[in-house]
Amino acid sequence: MQVTEVITIFKLSVPSSHLSVLAALVVAYVLIRFRYGNRPAGLYADAAFYFVLFWKGSYVLTDFGSFLKAPLSLLYYNGGMIGALAGLLAALYFLWRKGLAASPAILTGAVAVQSVYQMMMVFLNDNGILAETVTFVLFGPLLLLTLFRADSTHLWQKQLTVIFPAAHLMAAAVQPDGFGGLSFVSTLIFSVYHYNRLVGGVKNE
């Protein structure tokens, strides 16, 4: 999704995309902890921290003068696609070092983050009835399917790793930011990363 409204909470105005990211990260943590236990949830939380650190911290590095003048600007601005991709790669590297690169918990977390983010953006913004309907129809069932099947068999995990980008491909076709948006690019990067670890012989670490 692309159209981003500004949400006012008390006297603080926050982009809806930031609220959507926060909600997605929290929901994914809860689902991983409930489904897979404390250790995967804790490592996911650490990876999420690295993502946010790079995503937001890159703004400080690229526009340090503006940050010094208005530190609260960190709530509104970030490092854009470059910062977010750097954060994603840092998070994936951390998970690989911890032996969770091929874990069904991480697949579940990735699908949960993307699905909740997409559906939150539908709730908080006006992106057109077609884009919003397709987004819900694709990401809602995808999230449920992943929750119930990701850890059933190694084959199901591989299939879901392919279904994930395929579903996002169909959604991106009608969304405002299309195939070049950060969301779709992130899904592709994760899917290639996760599938590569699966076919490389790393099973449910």
Distance between the termini: 33 Å
Helix content: over 70%
Structural class: mainly alpha
Q: What Rg is obtained from the alpha carbons, in whole angstroms?
A: 17 Å
Number of strands: 2
Q: Can you list the strand order of the major beta sheet?
A: 1-2
DSSP summary: helix tally: 8
Mean pLDDT: 86
Shape: globular
Strand content: under 5%
Oligomerization: single chain
| Unreliable parts | none
Largest sheet, if any? 2 strands, antiparallel
Topology as H/E string? Answer: EEHHHHHHHH
In short:
By secondary structure, the protein is mainly alpha-helical. 73% of the residues lie in helices and 4% in strands.
Supply database-style keywords.
single chain, 205 residues, mainly alpha, two-stranded antiparallel sheet, 73% helix, globular
Give a verbal description of the structure.
- There is one protein chain.
- 73% of the residues lie in helices and 4% in strands.
- The chain is mainly alpha-helical and 205 residues long.
- It has a two-stranded antiparallel sheet with strand order 1-2.
- The chain starts with 5 loop residues before the first strand and ends in a 6-residue tail after the last helix.
- The mean pLDDT is 86.
Strands, helices and their partners?
Elements: E1 6-9, E2 12-15, H1 16-36, H2 38-62, H3 64-69, H4 80-97, H5 104-124, H6 129-149, H7 154-172, H8 182-199
Antiparallel strand pairs: 1-2
